[in-house]
Amino acid sequence: MTGFAEHRSIATVALVVANYDEAIAWYVDRLGFVLTEDVDLGGGKRWVTITPGNGQGARLLLAEASGDAQTDAVGNQAGGRVFLFLETDAFARDHALMLEKGVEFREAPRHETYGTVAVFADLYGNLWDLIEPKR
Predict the structure, then answer these.
(1) Average pLDDT of 2-25?
(2) Can you tell me the mean pLDDT for 61-86?
(3) Phi and psi for 18 in degrees, rounded to 5?
(4) Is the CA virtual torsion 26, 27, 29, 35 positive or negative?
(5) pTM above the 0.90 mark?
């Protein structure tokens, strides 16, 4: 026993973006995410969250870059490694739909011991895995 609460989860992951509205449009139109919050915080800041269409998993907080360090991180939050993992229960369907909507895949789908996977880039170049885990 560690002393921490038994039921904890990562609920939100911040993703630094160049522009709130272009990021919202890309994730909603190309990946089928849902805009769950868009609250004006004043001073040009907003609290913008999106989730996969079914609302499962962590939500993304789209955080518009301010300052040089944040601007430099846009599109490279993981130093060129895959940063986020979008799980699906229908890889072929989602892969085809994402291609149709203009999502740039960096590789052909491949079958691994853990599931079917392909790397894609978001509008800023952050790398993601589209993955259907083996069940």
Answers:
(1) 94
(2) 96
(3) -80, -30
(4) negative
(5) yes
- Tell me which amino acid residue 106 is: R
In angstroms, the CA 34 to CA 40 distance is: 18
Residue 108 in tokens: 């052909």
- Residue 15 one-letter amino acid: L
Burial class (CB in 10 A: 0-12, 13-18, 19+), 32: middle
How far is Cα 22 from Cα 3, in angstroms, rounded to an integer? Answer: 43
For residue 1, what pLDDT is reported?
A: 57
User: What tokens does 109 get?
Assistant: 């789908």
Residue 6: Cβ within 10 Å count = 6
**pLDDT value at residue 27:** 98
Estimate the share of the chain in helix, then strand, then coil, as percent rounded to the nearest 5: 20, 40, 40
Comparing C-alpha atoms, which of 117, 28, 89 is closest to residue 108?
Answer: 117
pLDDT in tens, 76-85: 999 999 999 9
E strand segments, the chain: 12-17, 34-42, 45-51, 59-64, 82-87, 104-105, 110-112, 115-121, 127-133
